[in-house]
Structures are given as C-alpha cells and as structure tokens.
Specification:
two-stranded antiparallel ribbon, Farnesyl Diphosphate Synthase, transferase, Polyprenyl_synt_CS, Isoprenoid_synthase_dom_sf, 2 strands, mainly alpha
C-alpha cells in the first residue's frame, strides 16, 4: 500500500497536467445561493425515457455493490466489532453514492470493475457518517433502514470504533483493490473523496447542523448545511468515478455541476419526506427534524415551494447531461429524477 501511495503521489505531482490538462479543484461550482426567489420556473421537461430499464439497472448495481461489500468486510476476530461494521453497512438501502460513482465512470468510458473498490469505499465512509449521525450526542436516532440503529444494538463505544475502522478500511480498500487505474488519477480521486468528508465538507455541515438546532437559521445558512453535509459527498462520488473512468476536465466539471444540483434536490426532498412520508417507506421515524428544532426547506419556504425548488434542481441537473452521449447518460438522467421522487 505504501509503495502504491508513494507512486501515486509522485505521479500526481509530475503528470497531472499531462493526464488532465490544466486540472483545477472541482469542488462546489456555485458561489451564491441556489434559491433565487419564490418565482421558480422549470427550464426543462422531466420525462424519463421509456426505453431504458432503470429499475433493472438499479437493482443489478445494488446487487453487485452489496456482494462486493460483503466480501470486503468479512466476519472475523474481534467478532463483535466486525458485526458492528457489517450491521449498518449491509443493512440495505439505495446505495446512492456508489451507484452514482459507477454510473459516472461508465458515462466517460470506464467500466464497473475499475471503480468498484472506490464505490465500496464510498459506502463504507457514508455508513460511518450515518452511524455517527445516529449517536446520542448527535441526532440520537433509534431507527435506521427499518432496524435499530448501530449504537442501540452494539453500544456507543463499539459503534464509535466501528466508524473509525470503516474509514480506515475504505482507504486500504481503494489502494489495495483498485486495478488498471493510472496512479495520478487514483490519488486525485482519493483527494476529492476525503476532501468532501473533512472540515471543508461533511464534517463542516454536520457541525453547522448540530449547532443550529433550536435557532433561527437563514436560507443561506441552511444551504451551507445541506451543501456540506450532503451535496459534497454526492459531488465527490460522481467526480471520483469520472476521474477513475478517464474523464476529461470538461466531463468532470459537468458531472460536478450535475452533482451539486442533484445533491441539493435529494436533501430538499428528504426534508419534504420528513413531513409527508411514512416510517414504512423511509425506514426511519418521521418528524425528527421538527422535534430537534432543525431548519428545513419546508420550514423556511413551505412544502409547495420546496417541491418546486427540488423539481427545478433536477431539471438543471439534467441540463448538464446534454453534453454527453444520451445512451450513456440514461442512468444519471433517471437517477436524477428518482432521487427527488419524480419517477
């Protein structure tokens, strides 16, 4: 692992310009609020193609991701610790980040085998964040994916250690299992993922979210929370997949912008479902945001405007896919609609 990392760092420093052109940071591309006003206009018609078998595609990807995750985290000594790691990781779910990562890799001409280790690592890291998010010192949730949360089953101490180990394993898994990817591309993809998780990403969003409970929060402050807690990880999933798949700078930036819109649409829709959904379909208790005094889009702009905003974000995301081959873009087209509950 150390040898690969040293080679990757050397390659990244010396050959990035040759491989990517003048590569720049591909983080959040918007410097102003995505909510412009209450007068929202839909720019493009949302009409999923009847030709592409999206449900079959999604089911197949989830099955392959679940199989790869099961193999990546075997049950071994210490047994309880590995049970805790596997418990939430293998609990099911939509596998959003990993599916986006694979879809973006395939969109730019790569294949699933190239990017599966990275897709698995993304699931390990997002699982660690979810387990931490559920802890008593954070959201203190009892249910996740229709099952008792990790700390309710294994205790707080074991859950915290499991979080750490899932992140450590994610790094090891990417570096030891990724094959046939140029080292400079691999290290850049890793940088994008871990940058999205740290104090410039998920951690910042989680911190701001935690310290905003029970307070008056502006729309701009709410967007900061969602952009960092949710959007950046979705952007990193897409960007890392495109980098590993051999994407150009223009393709990577298009997918970054797509992820910005889709990620926020996902979070806005999640806010809506916390009000209008059901525990059976969502696999969690509802109304938690209101009970904890959290700011949400429905709370600040109302349910109707929140739904209009989510639709506009999806429409804007789809516009970014017009640059790509339509057949290859079909999975991301349908994923954008499904993320916000429109198909």
């Amino acid at each position: 692992m150390a040898a690969l990392l040293n080679t990757a760092i050397y390659g990244f420093k010396n050959h990035t310009r040759m491989a990517f052109g003048p590569l720049r940071h591909v983080g959040n591309s918007s410097s102003s609020s995505l909510v412009q006003s209450n007068h929202l206009k839909i720019k493009s018609k949302i009409s999923p193609s009847p030709v592409f078998a999206f449900e079959e595609y999604k089911t197949l990807k989830i099955e392959r991701i679940n199989k790869a995750l099961d193999e990546a985290v075997p049950l071994k000594h210490p047994t309880i610790l590995h049970e805790a790691m596997r418990y939430t990781l293998l609990a099911g779910g939509e596998r959003l980040c990993s599916t986006l990562c694979i879809a973006s890799c395939e969109l730019v001409g790569g294949n699933e085998s190239l990017v599966m280790p990275m897709a698995c690592a993304l699931e390990m890291m997002t699982t660690a964040e979810l387990v931490a998010d559920d802890l008593p010192c954070m959201d203190d949730d009892d249910i996740r994916c229709g099952k008792p949360t990790n700390h309710k089953v294994f205790g707080v101490g074991t859950s915290v250690i499991a979080c750490h180990d899932l992140i450590y394993l994610a790094i090891e898994h990417i570096l030891t299992k990724t094959k046939d990817v140029e080292p400079n591309r691999l290290i850049q993809a890793i940088i994008e993922i871990f940058k999205s998780m740290g104090a410039a990403g998920v951690s910042a969003g989680q911190f701001a979210d935690m310290h905003s409970e029970g307070k008056e929060v502006s729309l701009r402050e709410l967007e900061f929370i969602h952009q960092h807690k949710t959007v950046k990880m979705i952007q990193a999933s897409l960007v890392s997949g495109a980098i590993v798949g051999g994407g150009t700078e223009v393709e990577i930036e298009r997918l970054n912008k797509y992820g910005e819109k889709v990620g926020l649409a996902f979070q806005v829709w999640d806010d809506i479902l916390d009000v209008t959904g059901s525990p059976e379909t969502l696999g969690r208790n509802l109304g938690g945001d209101a009970l904890r005094g959290k700011a949400t889009y429905p709370k600040l702009i109302g349910l109707d405007e929140s739904e209009k905003f989510a639709k506009q974000l999806v429409a804007d995301a789809i516009q970014e896919l017009a640059y790509f081959d339509s057949a290859r873009a079909d999975p991301l087209y349908h994923l954008a609609n499904s993320i916000a509950g429109f198909v």
